[in-house]
């Protein structure tokens, strides 16, 4: 981890020459930055999944040496145990709330918790546990992405915990897309008003992207050696796992809008790019792929997806729009900026 402070924007350009948008190293040494989100004031918050920390980069591009949060109970083991998820409150400018999802050890069971911090001069204070999610003795298929939907509710992805009996069990929170109020309560308009389960039948979802204008919830899901998916979540939807991976689930299940077939990309973070620095990508659905390290663009016609197009950028973990209009994405060891 680049924990000594100083400029985070000193990396050289990796793009072509000319006046167009360039790719440069924004935070070199950002170890496994699995979740990136900008505050409206221009600060970048990100999680180090292996470091078990939330870090802050100032609007001027300086990585602060002091972590925003480094909870003592975080459990780190492999990519799937650590600190994968982060989301800022939709009203962050007034409440300063930062939501973090991370793994904890509970007598040998690796659970996930969602904890809310309050920003105080770039330090997370007053932690409050918002949700505690089921775990497994090994670190596998935990999911770990969180995001706020347009209706202000908090979405949380949880994998099947390597137990294929759980995604179709509505009494379990595993293999699900969950939906909470910002305080951790169950919204009254969930499919079951007593349960946070919003959609089920998923295997290991690592990406959430809210479509501008429609509020649709897109998510990526990792297949079992094949048939990675992009789906659109709907209330009460069944996405078929474990009975089916990819399309063809039949009545009662929802097919993905795209499946990788026999190719295994392991899609991770996803976003709709809302900036203008890279105009060819404005409005496009983008996702990162852990296995080949590419940033992908997904051509959409309404809700119909064409095969993703690799953009040749180093994007293993997450991608988001900066407040400056540039596109930011993370490899295993660097956060990059693509912009003017």
Describe it for me?
The structure is a single chain. 1% of the residues lie in helices and 41% in strands. The chain has 340 residues and is an all-beta fold. The strands form seven sheets. It has a four-stranded antiparallel beta sheet, with no helix packed on it. A hairpin with a 7-residue loop joins strand 14 and strand 15.
- Name the helicity range: under 10%
Average pLDDT reading: 94
Strand numbers in spatial order across the main sheet: 1-25-24-23
**What Rg is obtained from the alpha carbons, in whole angstroms?**
19 Å
Overall structural class, as computed from helix and strand content, comes to: mainly beta
The description of the largest β-sheet is: 4 strands, antiparallel
What fraction of residues sit in β-strands?
Answer: 35-45%
Low-confidence stretches: 1-7, 9-16
Please write the string of helix (H) and strand (E) elements: EEEEEHEEEEEEEEEEEEEEEEEEEE
* Tally of alpha and pi helices: 1
What overall geometry do the principal axes of the alpha carbons give? globular
End-to-end gap? 27 Å
